[in-house]
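Two entries, shown back to back:
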Amino acid sequence: MARRAIGIGRETVLVGTVGILIGACYEADSSPRFSDRVELSVVSEMQLEETLGRQLQEIRGFDLSGDGTLALITDSRATAVSLYDVATGDLLLRRTFSGQLSKPRAAVYSEGGILVPDGEPRVTLLNADDLSVIRMMPLDQKVPTTSVSPRASSFIVTNVDTHYPGDSFVEYSLDGEKIGSFHELPDHALTPFWGEFTTEHLARSSDGDFVASSMSYPLQRYSDGERLEFGSPPPGYREPRRPERFEFGGGPDGRKRYEEFARSFTTISSVWTVADSLLVVEHMDLDPTENAVRSPSFSIDVYDTHSLEKVASGVALPGPIVYAASTIRVVTVRPPAGPWTVTEFSLIGIQ
């Protein structure tokens, strides 16, 4: 396949090198049959407007309005949530919550407004038009929330706390009433000096709820009350080791050991479902070179959500995925290389 260069901000992506995924065609029974290769094609590019005193420090969360015209971006470092025009990248509204929310994380649209977890045992509901606080919903748990996944009339919060064993995912009604929970926190998440590196990731499709632990395989699918394990690490996967007790103590030397440890293994950084038929598992690696800048590299494995077959592995990405639906959106440029840029890619070949 011929390679062609596409300029993305100040970076260039070789589509055909970075962008080889998988394609699918469907027979009468709707079971996917995958071809060998599919190209990631740039659909749109969104450069985010910034003004003096309103700079975006990080993209902790990214979501789209129902009509796809507004991008909801969470900046945890600035304790802010912002609305951007998807077509132009213009900043339409930015609201900071210093003194109200602890660290807003991954605000998402829901049936009743915008749901915001903030690292406390609660979820805050915002007005979708002006980002004002409608109400705060204390949750019946001690564990702080780290992310939220909306459903039709409820939401699921992700809980990872090394001091509170239990299920990682808890479902609540939009009134804050507990409905149920699933996926017991893995043992390594409760292990001192190791649990702080652990995050449980959730992605949903009509085939079930897919769970990945940042620090270990296998992957898991929950469907109709059953749990199935599947999946395998990509080529070059570096398995984490358990840290020794007090390994990171001792001032500057301890910090150096901590950095060396953080660069020594591969993590699962996120999971996504695309077109309700593909599970995309994103991996992150830091440069293992001593004293290297902690600039991560990303790659993905892709599975068929129905058969659980792996159909692509070790495919490089130009940045982290922040959103997925029928397409994926990737942060392709960040300061100081250029203005924050989120690029939308389609998976050419999926029919």
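entry 2 starts here
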Amino acid sequence: MSKRSILVAALTANFLLAIAILLQSNDRLFFPSLITTFSFLILSSFYCSLMISTRNQPVAFMLMLFWCYGMTMPAIYQIGTGILPWLPNSVNFDNLIPAALMNLYAVISFVFGYLTSQLKNRQAQENLPSRYKVDNSFATLFIFISAMIFALYAFDKVGISAFFATRESSSLIIQQSGFNLTSLGLLKTFPSAVAISTFVIISYQRNILKFKNLVMNLLYPLSFLMMITTNFPTNIPRYLMISISFIILCTTFISTYNKNRPLIYFAAPVLIFLVFPFLSSFNRRADLNFSYQLPILEESLKSGDFDGFQSLMNAIILVGVEGYSWGGRLASALLFIIPREIWSGKYQPTGSDAARAAGYDFLNISMPLPGEIYVDFGMLGVVFGMFLFGRLVVYLDEKLESSRNSGFNVEIGMSGIVMAAYMPILFRGTLLAVIAVPASIIAVIFLWGLLRRLRL
């Protein structure tokens, strides 16, 4: 089957799916549904182009997977039927059109930024340098030993059961230990992130750059074991499970990934609705739940798993109550490491504040990136911010590809894999609640880069 046939078939399937969902709309809600359908068709066309592309673009793939099928497609159904995930009495239907336009402006701006940047970067990729090989064993060994010390210290302080129990049981163990939020970040979140970064550093060198000396061959299985131990599937949220699985796929099974990319891209949207609900209930309670029931599409489309559009509506309400934050919320997310004891004016997670403004209160609720930007800088900020974001995605994908081919910009290549793996949860947000792990991983990668330049 030719690539052109695959593209036509995929575009047709997405168009028919969008029309089928749109036809469920009530007459009075048809216009915002139509706007969102237009956004979906742009995103799905973009996604289909990635499916047949000869170039590996994992950051764009993971972003489009969530934005198109995990947010915008469910939004068509939610808007059209008037059934949104959270508390019907909190929904202000006057915000449907502004939220739909916010998403559309974000889509168009992102695509424009992506395409203009891609054309420029494609010319720069024509004359890549030859593969650059440097033995970074000592710097890698230093990072591995440091990660091992962090993990052992965390096991001693928090208890190893806090890393292996289900999420509810682990929370009870941590509460009984008396740790505050800052201590918990240092004793559980940070060791987990350092273990992931160590695996990325070692696996990338060994399997992608082909540095297969004694040190890499020895540390590779040990780093995998440490990553799984500090991020055991029974103990971590489903987004983290997906992120770690994607990291393993892109580093350990890179040839399989490249060979089967069209199939993976085709299956991924289906898996969102087949696997995601199961992962939600698998380890959330005190006991593991292995029961599986085939989800009904209509039930999935209106579930809290896909609440991104309602969070955009909440962002509009929050601005109406508090006004724009003028960068304060994004700064609070980017400077997450500063505790509130030092920074008294540090904002709470945007998704939670917006939910409270809308009339319901959840500790952990989404706020997609366009909503984060809107709360800080308004609709004009969304346009410019998503344009720049499109250029950033191109930059990460291009640097990842050039790093694989040349051996240069290794830290950025590694960071590209991490950003791709965490892109769904970073885009879904809320940013302040989810940025700590990927930011810590990337920080350790650049620390390794500094050490290798010092020839440690």
